[in-house]
Amino acid sequence: MAWYVDRVARVLVFAGGISAIVFIVGIFVFITKEGLDFVLGPLSLGEFFTSIAWRPTSNNPTYGALALIVGTASVTGFAMLLSVPLSLGAALFIAEFATGRTRETLKVLVEMLAAIPSVVWGFIGMSIMNPLIIRTFDVPVGLNVLNAGLILGLMAAPIMTTIAEDALKAVPDTYREAAEALGATRWEVIVKVVIPASRNGLLAAVLLGVGRGFGETMAVLMASGHAINLPTSPFDSVRALTATIAAELGDTVKGGAHWGSLFTLGILLFVVTFVINLTADIVVRGIRKK
Amino acid sequence: MVDTAARTTAANGVPGPVYDEPPIIEVRGLSIAYGGKPALQGVNLDIYRHEIFGIIGPANSGKTSFLRALNRMDAFTTGMKVGGAIRINGKDVSDWRNEYALRSRIGVVFPLPVGLPLTVYDNVAFSPRLRGIRKKAQLDEVVERCLTRAALWDEVKDRLDSLGSLLSGGQQQRLTIARALSQEPELLLLDEFSIAVDPVTTMRIEDVLKELRSELTIVLVTNLVQQARRLADRTAFFLMGELVEIGATEDLFEGKVKDKRTTGYIEGRFG
User: Is the pLDDT of residue A232 over 70?
Assistant: First the structure.
């Protein structure tokens, strides 16, 4: 009987483990297949990466994705500017200074923050941040890089905080005690011992935050203004890669050039997020080996 | 105290304990509790300059708690409460507003060697750098001197840039001793330093400690009764949170004890 259970369990666990690989390969194959006709046909790489003219529905369609790429990059970059210091600070406080109740409460709250649906964040961007930005900075439109960046930064911060906190907690307490016994202050211990020792984990946290920002769709669609534009200031509206796919896919002819072009954006996103996650993973592995 | 002075001071020209000056550490009515549960109660003792003061006793007798109280390590043990008075050089440790300055004058060696995740060189240079020493030549000098005094220099002088954690257990423990010495402490606290160290290295470290006695005061908590016999000028016996007795080490080992339990522990009848 035990032997039988062992067999079944083994098969089930194997199926579970292998399914992750099956899904990721399946998704990649699907996206590539749908985009392939377009990539091999109408796509001009030069136009795709250098032109800002994204006019897939025009009589004479052009497929310049530069504005979309810059849109995503600027929003993500702005988000990281906000969320990296915020989440590293939060992680340091939770891991190194907070104790007992405070610590537990903060951890639960941060995890709850991570679970807020992105459409809710988008709603906050539209209904609270938008008028706030218009009033504060006296600009005509409040749906822009600043708005989407702030929203995305707040969205990415909880996951980054959680992972960074794990990395800090993985530093053995004996290091802290030894350094304090040498007369180092709490801050010196953090700067000279704890952060260097958890460097890789902190880097992985940042990279996962970047990946999160890159892939986020709904909140960015709602808060960025969704206008094709090369931004020159944080108050310019932009359009993101993800938002473009979400907004346009419903209006396309399946198998047509527009359809294929959106899948090409998907391939680009997939490759970028895959590389970011892979880098994060390699970095994290680096810690474990030590 | 006075009768022991005659016997242990300056037997062979090596400066020994100074019993006719005020003690470096005075402990009065010390009690330690964790979350309301007492770990040590009613301890009174004096430790004199240039003395190796041994503390023996079975597990959970309060030895480590005593050490932790000396340099205010209670600050990072949640629930640890210290009562009574500990005076170092006449000043109560709880009167130090800046406990980091207090700790920087006390070297600590933990049971398991804790190599900070730094190179051998940086481990030893850590404390001098905290004190603001930046000049390379000066740091080089401190690192070499401390490693030499800890009997480790010859083994690591060619690999100062490799991680401290790559050294063997015994070398790491000597590295932590070198690191403690780099603080130029007047007080060195050792907590069962030989637990993870082979016997040969243990003997080498013991020789180092005997030499260091001429420069500083050593409090040696040990789980090895014979180690206290080899090293300590005077020895205190802790049992279940109580200081049973203090005596000149020779007296205790020759059976001149005030309490039968001491002999029982020393002779290995329990522990």
Answer: yes
B→A interface, C-beta within 8 Å: 71, 73, 76, 78, 100-101, 103-108, 110, 112, 114, 116-118, 126-127, 130-131, 176, 179-180, 183
pLDDT of residue B73: 82
Asked whether the ipTM of the predicted complex exceeds the cut of 0.90, the reply is: no
Give chain B positions within 8 Å (CB) of A95. none
pLDDT at A287: 57
Per the CB < 8 A criterion, the answer to whether B198 and B113 are in contact is no
Distance CA A249, CA B55 (A): 77
- Residue B6: which pLDDT band, with cuts at 50, 70 and 90? very low
Dihedral (C-alpha) A21, A26, A28, A32: value to the nearest 10 degrees?
Answer: 160
Nearest to A190 by CA among A206, A167, A208: A167
Contact present, A191 and B137 (Cβ < 8 Å): no
pTM of the model as a whole = 0.80
- Give the pairing type, strands B106-109 and B25-34: unpaired
Instruction: Give Cα B29 distance to the centre of its chain.
Output: 21
Residue B11, pLDDT > 50, answer: no
CA dist A98 and A161 (Å) reads 14
